[in-house]
Amino acid sequence: MYKMISIFGFMITTIMLFVSSVVSQPRISFTKILLPPNTTSPESVAVDRRGNGPYVTLADGRVLKWLGPDFGFMDFATTSPDRTKDVCDGTLNPDLIFQCGRPLGFSFDTQTDNLYIVDGVLGLYVVGPNGGQATRLASSAEGITFRFLNGVDVDTFTGIVYFTSSSTTYDIRNITQPGFQPDKSGRLLKYDPSTKQVTVLLRQLYVPIGPAVSLDGSFLVFSEYGNKRILRYWLKGLRANTVEVLFTVPGYPSKIKRTSIGDFWVPVNIINPATFIATPMGFRFNSFGTVVQKVDFSSQYANQNITVLNEQNGVLRVGCRTVNFIGIYSP
Ligand SMILES: *[C@@H]1O[C@H](CO)[C@@H](O)[C@H](O)[C@H]1NC(C)=O
Ligand SMILES: *[C@@H]1O[C@H](CO)[C@@H](O)[C@H](O)[C@H]1NC(C)=O
Ligand SMILES: *[C@@H]1O[C@H](CO)[C@@H](O)[C@H](O)[C@H]1NC(C)=O
After folding, report:
1. Rounded distance from Cα 24 to ligand 2 centre (Å)
2. Could you report the average pLDDT of every consecutive run of 10 residues in the chain (331 residues)?
3. Is 229 within a domain?
4. How many distinct structural domains can be found in the chain?
5. Ligand 2: does its nearest atom lie under 6 Å from the Cβ of 182?
6. Which parts of the sequence belong to the Strictosidine synthase conserved region domain (predicted)?
């Protein structure tokens, strides 16, 4: 049993404003849930099947759960078994990621309420609905240790877990180092709980990020950041085990999440080639690869790259590696 260890102060700011959208100009509400003091990097955000949360991954290795304005955040789950709160809570020391953990993506299995978590450097984990220390399911594939897992999704029909690795050579510390160049050693991976085996589905990808399984389980989509495009990998049917380009995007795409009606949201961060200023956008697309909605998040995330857009009942939870709040966007 994992008790609530700490409740933090919090603050919510609601800003009503107009946000420009290519498709429409709706009046929207944008609310911020501030993270606990000294914590940052809410890269992934999700709610559970009952709509509780949001849950959030942090740079200091924890997954937190928001209990609402009266109670704030509680510690929900951890990946590293070596993590201690005194050393790790609030840390920004990149070299502590192996001790403290660095969860970067997660996804609920809506059949079991288990939460699958990818820790960038430590591997694929699962934790039950009460949270606590997650169980590691895999730390390598084909003899290559994971260094930069970034996204995960579960096929709720089969229980099979799909996840992505940005690279087999570098980890999250390297991307901000001078002269860094991404390589094409990314992999699309599969974990089958019935055999406990990891299979490499695709390799030599140019920074694949954040897979999402389709509503009918016939395919999954993922971003290829380096090539600024969205790929589709067929899981069933005549084209099973083949990949195709679904569409290209005008910026760097990040983690994809499916909506309840079967569309997908992907953040697309457009970098101005002259000023290097980032315009964070959200694209919603359908299973034909048609973009049906675009939202510009520049007013709320000025010059930041957003990392995930997770929709439930029309409300988008926004993740971003470089801020200290969770964004809640409702048209
Ligand atoms: C946050 O960090 C500051 C500066 O390191 C420190 O003085 C303060 O106690 C920290 N607050 C919490 C809640 O950890
Ligand atoms: C990544 O960064 C770590 C820590 O600074 C360093 O030891 C390692 O050599 C770097 N790896 C690459 C591929 O640059
Ligand atoms: C946003 O992403 C671009 C492209 O990867 C990168 O050059 C830039 O530094 C990022 N901005 C921030 C604030 O992280």
Report:
1. 45
2. 38 37 64 96 97 97 98 98 97 96 98 97 98 98 97 97 97 96 97 98 98 98 98 98 98 97 98 96 97 97 97 95 97 82
3. yes
4. 1
5. no
6. 150-237
